[in-house]
């Protein structure tokens, strides 16, 4: 009797064990699927989506004016500027790929039929340089707000390496075409000529103002008793050069040059 009961008990246990193991395996698989779907990819995707939503759409439009971009960068935080730098890196990378494809086409084109391709290459190069200017504006804003110095240096190294490699691989005609395009562009030679003219005119104006101030100080200090001629000349000279120095700093700051120490 006991032997029969033992056999029945073993049969019942044998029948129940596979079902419990299968149920346990199914529970484990479902838990694993739930675990794999929650952390990693979903979290990073949602974080990237939120990051894109936090940035104004205007600041990563390729056709935005650089002056408007400078204004729109002011309220952005350091983390937002970091995300924006990555977006602009993708923009300039995409345009650089277009430049390289056109340059390869030019290299494979016969000399007599390369005028159109060369003009297209020059135009693409000009557009890419304008994008690089906006890219640099984002990096400068990021740096001013305490961004990662090493990361910013890597971003700038990317730009420098591309310019060096493109110049090294370009032929003489392409370099001449780029130089002419830069000299006649609003953001290139024309802007440089305007800046140089403003500096020269401002310096001449500062010389006139400093001379007037020196003349006024000489008249005023002549009425102060007990001051030697040597000390008078020293004070007048110091005032003259201070007026010139601060005037030049103001002019350079107005032109966008960073004069802070």
UniProtKB/TrEMBL annotation:
Database matches in SUPFAM superfamilies: Mechanosensitive channel protein MscS (YggB), transmembrane region
Keywords from the named record = Membrane, Transmembrane, Transmembrane helix
| Coiled-coil intervals, chain numbering | none
Q: Where is the composition biased (Polar residues)?
A: 27-44
Q: According to the UniProt record, where is the region Disordered? A: 27-54
Q: Which InterPro entries match?
A: MscS_channel_TM-2 (IPR011014)
**TM segments?**
195-213, 234-257
Record's Gene Ontology CC terms? membrane
Q: What is this protein called?
A: Uncharacterized protein
Lineage of producing organism: unclassified sequences, metagenomes, ecological metagenomes
């Amino acid at each position: 009797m006991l032997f029969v009961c033992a056999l029945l008990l073993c049969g019942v246990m044998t029948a129940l064990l596979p079902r419990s193991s299968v149920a346990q395996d199914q529970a484990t698989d479902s838990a694993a699927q739930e675990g794999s779907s929650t952390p990693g990819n979903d979290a990073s995707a949602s974080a990237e989506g939120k990051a894109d939503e936090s940035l104004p759409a205007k600041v990563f439009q390729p056709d935005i004016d650089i002056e408007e971009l400078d204004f729109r960068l002011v309220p952005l935080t350091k983390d937002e500027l970091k995300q924006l730098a990555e977006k602009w890196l993708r923009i300039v990378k995409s345009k650089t790929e277009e430049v390289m494809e056109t340059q390869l086409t030019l290299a494979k084109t016969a000399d007599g039929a390369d005028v159109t391709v060369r003009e297209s290459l020059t135009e693409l190069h000009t557009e890419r340089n304008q994008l690089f200017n906006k890219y640099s504006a984002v990096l400068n804003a990021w740096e001013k707000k305490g961004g990662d110095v090493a990361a910013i240096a890597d971003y700038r190294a990317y730009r420098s390496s591309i310019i060096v490699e493109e110049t090294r691989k370009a032929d003489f005609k392409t370099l001449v075409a780029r130089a002419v395009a830069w000299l006649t562009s609003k953001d290139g030679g024309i802007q440089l000529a305007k800046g140089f003219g403003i500096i020269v005119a401002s310096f001449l104006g500062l010389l006139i103002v400093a001379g007037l101030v020196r003349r006024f100080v000489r008249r005023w200090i002549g009425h102060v008793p007990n001051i030697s001629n040597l000390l008078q000349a020293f004070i007048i000279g110091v005032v003259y050069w201070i007026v010139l120095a601060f005037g030049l700093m103001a002019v350079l700051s107005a032109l966008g040059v960073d004069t802070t120490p």
